[in-house]
């Protein structure tokens, strides 16, 4: 389970504050505590450095995701062109076949009969002209078929090249995601072990002083550490990691006010409490038959490029899982469909809960009201609620 740099930063500062309080209470902390405090300081520096690296990597991954979806869309468009060319090729082949069949039945042009059958010079000229036109038409049909065949082969080659490039990009992305997840796991494990060690040592000291019958300043220090590090512990206890995912998205994607942490959590909770009422009024039937209600149930599901199920989804895959495939598979398909059907909306004020919303042309979420959406952010992240960080357009599914 991953946590936002903001959540980890709050946890680190809380533990550091607790240790500072313990030091100022006049308790003589053993050398082991000092060593742990030094380790915590090193961990703090490491986490801050790692947070910057992860933020940069996450941005790269999101860009690659958008590029991959665009490539997928372009490949789909190219396939449509190839299908149309194939249809024309089949038609020309049929026409050529009919001409060959006609020539086989009637035989080739007999120039002697054309000459002897002419009633006048003008008639002879006309006969020669039309006979030549038939031959030219046959030649043109053959050349056109050949040209279309060459064009089709070229288009297939372009499509195969794009597919190879896309696969390479996917492989690179998977490698980056693995590095990202490994760094997050290592950093979280390191920080958690140090945090637990500090609390255990302070608890042991408090127990020893209590056994001696003396007032324990370590109790106050332990309480300070436990209380002030509650945000980190609360995140660790959150099985769905929804708040952590949502905060990570807000911090990294939209650059909103850093003080909105509590507001976002409260908004998420109120949305979760009331979503059943909203879904009964605004949800549209989809692949899972739930629409907006299904979107809420998907919170916490991992991002998976190309995924459309509860095992993992990408941004447009989340929409398909909740609503179906009536408006296409990619964000670009959905935008084209909304514009074609007259359902495209150009202002956030026009959106209703359950509508699709596009922060930019390469990303889509499901609008839930109050300038928020449910979306699948990027590789290494999970489906979450976030504040809109941009607006390209939207519309009713």
Automatic annotation (TrEMBL):
Which keywords does the record carry?
Answer: Coiled coil, Hydrolase, Protease, Signal, Thiol protease
> What GO annotations for molecular function exist for this entry?
cysteine-type peptidase activity
| The UniProt record lists the keyword Signal | yes
Q: Which PROSITE patterns match?
A: NLPC_P60
Q: Does Protease count among this protein's keywords?
A: yes
- Provide the coiled-coil residue spans: 40-95
Mark out the compositionally biased spans (Low complexity).
228-249, 256-285
Name all NlpC/P60 domain ranges: 285-397
Which superkingdom does the taxonomy of this entry point to? Answer: Bacteria
- UniProt protein name: NLP/P60 protein
